Amino acid sequence: MGKRPGKIGRASQQPAADPLNIAHGSLPSREVILRFIADHPQKASKRELAKAFGLKGENRVELKHLLRELEQEGMLQKTRKSLIRPGALPPVTVLDITTRDKDGELIGRPAEWPDDQGVAPAVAIRQSTSPAGRNGKGKAPVAGMGDRILAKIFPAADRGGPAYTARIIKILDKRRGALLGVFKDAPGGAGRLLPIDRRGEEMVIDPDYKGEAKDGDLVEVEVARLGRFGLPRAKVLSIIGSVASEKAISMIAIHAHGIPYIFPPAVVAEADDAKSATMSHREDWRDVPLITIDPADAKDHDDAVYAQADPSPDNPDGVIVTVAIADVSYYVRPNSPLDREALRRGNSVYFPDRVVPMLPERISNDLCSLREGVDRPALAVRMVFSKEGRKIGHTFHRIMMKSAAKLSYQQAQAAIDGKADDKSGPLLEPILKPLWNAYRIMTRGRERRQPLELDMPERKILLKPDGTVDRVFVPPRLDAHKLIEEMMIQANVSAAETLEKKRQVLIYRIHDGPTLAKQEVLREFLATLGISLAKGGNMRANNFNMILAKADDTPHQTMVNEMVLRSQSQAIYSPENIGHFGLNLMKYAHFTSPIRRYADLIVHRALVGSLGFGEGAITPDEEAALDDIAAEISTFERRAMAAERETVDRLIAHHLAGRVGEEFEGRVSGVTKSGLFVTLPDYGADGFVPISTLGTDYFIYDEAHQALSGEKTGLGYRLGDSVTVKLAEAIPLAGALRFEMISEGRKMPTAVRSFHKGRRRDAGRARKQVGTRPPRGRR
């Protein structure tokens, strides 16, 4: 198995007169039946299948035999009323609501899920907007965090989110799960629970229910009683630690998002028992001087590089670039305890004070870390480039390597810049200079490809020993960073190309182009700056690069970069390839970080299987589940991003909490109907200025110009404006800052004032028609 089984009725999957556009009344293929059951779980009984495909008489008997064969092969499971794919949810399922997504929508998981089926799939909960239930009587059920519900399950239409959506049928149990908050002492020995997010509610904790909790402790609680009046009452279940202690801030995000951070004993045992890889099915590359280049504080090293001139006379001045990646697939086998836990995590999560790894340290920091001078198994790709930077060809190899050196980005860059140290000096001529020569050649190909080139500096937080913020800074972007990035991109491209050539199913990293709606918003905004954006759906990254180039060295540079970024879609994982818009690549798959991303581990297994590299290949069950796996790890990636962002917000809010009343220089980073978001560049922190505090004028929101403008004065604020604000409030637990505007608004451009005149004129005509008084402005 492991090969893509041709084009499995792709045309037949499109709905027409019948569900899959096949000849009505004829027996469908096995693949079509499996696809139909996955897409229509509510119609997955034998009777519904026969009805959907118009089967009668002998064809019904054949369908029965075919379904029995699929059951015996493990491709289907029989429930009381229907058939389901293994690992798929039945049409009606009991769910526990465990977390929220980045938009605050509830996410649930099945209450019962076998361990041997990996991680339980995420389900987006659709709350009813109707005032009554299905029968038109009573209120529709509204669920909350921790509730257990009975739900109707539907396949999700959004490829980038959870694999399923659900409609609540009934709430079975309120608030089963533990909630997180900070315990605060209250009079009489009681306590209060302060929520750790803005949507949470405060709770009362009776003296008998507080356990050993002390003032300032981060605690998990369960709801003890929900009355009709007053605050809900809670019981302390466990004490995580003091909010003031080191690493408490990241623990809030870990618990709030349900990120697994403790490895089960079976996983630790499997990692501890793992033995070093052998030479079986491997080439001996221990004499190849591959080196690792990583951050100075990196504990694991999963990629190594080497470059040399191509000796072939057919490729004058060409280069051969080798990228070797730790062979995680040898140690983490499909459906093992290690594998199931890795999929449950999806990726490593990086906080300023800690890392929550996808794999135990025995694997990530030891057996799969390409340590200097130590034999380590790897998958390597050898890529040949012409002097123009075009990739001529590539080959993959399963190898045993020995890293010749471990350098930091700063060390490698300093050596190239003429400041080599004792370690990098001997590597300069034989290794580092050929690497930089290869990078210069590869850059020619990148310039021709024209990926999206946004200029968005990434800020880093440096912590003190007690876990509080020391300083926030923007690390320099070195050529050493760019060199490793470009070599990893080309290795990822090579992985996707090889697997496609082998007709092997895989998980791609895809990035859709901006939607027409987002393009239109960006087009209207750019028009206010005198920058045009061509209309039409066939946009390429280069179109946006030309816009960014026009904004270079102008007061609008940062603002334009932010608006272009907002117009972009989010990259996700998918077994269906649409290309990567931002990188301007048609074939792209993550291959280079299997220690910290599950998607890369899947790609490694696919390469091992399709190239006949021995043990650790992808299995048929994995291939059948790639849609669900891709949806899951895309969700977990967003979960990690949200947790990392919230932790930074909380750390900065803690850092600034003692400076309420002080003034700061900032920049307007967001404009809404409710007010302005202002970023403090020195801290990378965002705060909000409510529109009601801007002054006595009536402020009008202009989306096209990204502005709030006073109706009478014409003074206002636009995206990107430099402003002075005063810190009015800091809420560290929620990571929230509130500012008061000190800077006077500036005169809006003529286009904005004309927009307001048009609005007033239209509003006046409307008032004359209906006889209403004008609305009063905000004060």
TrEMBL record:
<dbReference type="InterPro" id="IPR050180">
    <property type="entry name" value="RNR_Ribonuclease"/>
</dbReference>
<protein>
    <recommendedName>
        <fullName>Ribonuclease R</fullName>
        <ecNumber>3.1.13.1</ecNumber>
    </recommendedName>
</protein>
<dbReference type="Pfam" id="PF00773">
    <property type="entry name" value="RNB"/>
</dbReference>
<dbReference type="InterPro" id="IPR011805">
    <property type="entry name" value="RNase_R"/>
</dbReference>
<dbReference type="GO" id="GO:0005829">
    <property type="term" value="C:cytosol"/>
</dbReference>
<feature type="region of interest" description="Disordered">
    <location>
        <begin position="1"/>
        <end position="22"/>
    </location>
</feature>
<dbReference type="InterPro" id="IPR040476">
    <property type="entry name" value="CSD2"/>
</dbReference>
<keyword id="KW-0540">Nuclease</keyword>
<feature type="region of interest" description="Disordered">
    <location>
        <begin position="752"/>
        <end position="779"/>
    </location>
</feature>
<comment type="similarity">
    <text>Belongs to the RNR ribonuclease family. RNase R subfamily.</text>
</comment>
<dbReference type="GO" id="GO:0003723">
    <property type="term" value="F:RNA binding"/>
</dbReference>
<feature type="compositionally biased region" description="Basic residues">
    <location>
        <begin position="754"/>
        <end position="779"/>
    </location>
</feature>
<keyword id="KW-0269">Exonuclease</keyword>
<dbReference type="GO" id="GO:0008859">
    <property type="term" value="F:exoribonuclease II activity"/>
</dbReference>
<dbReference type="Pfam" id="PF00575">
    <property type="entry name" value="S1"/>
</dbReference>
<dbReference type="InterPro" id="IPR003029">
    <property type="entry name" value="S1_domain"/>
</dbReference>
<keyword id="KW-0694">RNA-binding</keyword>
<dbReference type="GO" id="GO:0006402">
    <property type="term" value="P:mRNA catabolic process"/>
</dbReference>
<feature type="domain" description="S1 motif">
    <location>
        <begin position="661"/>
        <end position="729"/>
    </location>
</feature>
<dbReference type="InterPro" id="IPR012340">
    <property type="entry name" value="NA-bd_OB-fold"/>
</dbReference>
<dbReference type="InterPro" id="IPR001900">
    <property type="entry name" value="RNase_II/R"/>
</dbReference>
<comment type="function">
    <text>3'-5' exoribonuclease that releases 5'-nucleoside monophosphates and is involved in maturation of structured RNAs.</text>
</comment>
<keyword id="KW-0963">Cytoplasm</keyword>
<dbReference type="InterPro" id="IPR004476">
    <property type="entry name" value="RNase_II/RNase_R"/>
</dbReference>
<dbReference type="InterPro" id="IPR022966">
    <property type="entry name" value="RNase_II/R_CS"/>
</dbReference>
<dbReference type="Pfam" id="PF17876">
    <property type="entry name" value="CSD2"/>
</dbReference>
<keyword id="KW-0378">Hydrolase</keyword>
